Amino acid sequence: MIERTIQVLASLEARPAALFVQTASKFVSSIHLRIDNRTINAKSIMGVISLGVLDGQNVTIITEGQDEEHAADELERFLNAV
User: Fold this and answer.
1) pLDDT at 82
2) Is there a smaller number of Cβ atoms within 10 Å at the N or the C end of the chain?
3) Which residues does 54 contact at the CB level (< 8 Å), separation at least 6?
4) For 25-78, what is each residue's pLDDT tens digit?
5) How many domains does the chain have?
């Protein structure tokens, strides 16, 4: 299992959230996002939108599975580029 906490540069509103979920869904690994005490499935558009990720917040990406490292790398790059 890999956990990475990063500061999000932009809010994950509808379009960026959909692109994030699309990226997460490419991987076999289980992928979750955590803010404070809330954890959601990162492959769920409703979950990502309901998390309400705002610019400047710290978000933890949690990946677990056979491609966990590649998933964590790509999702971190995505959040740093949005």
Assistant:
1) 80
2) N
3) 8, 11
4) 999 999 999 999 999 999 999 999 999 999 999 999 999 999 999 999 999 999
5) 1
d(CA 69, CA 56): 24
Tokens standing for residue 80: 């740093």
Spatial separation of the C-alpha atoms in residues 10 and 75, rounded to whole Å: 14
For residues 20 and 75, the answer to whether their CB atoms sit within 8 Å is: yes
Q: Which domain holds residue 75?
A: 2-81
Kindly report the CATH number assigned to the domain that includes residue 64: 3.30.1340.10
> What Rg do the C-alpha atoms of the chain give, in angstroms?
11
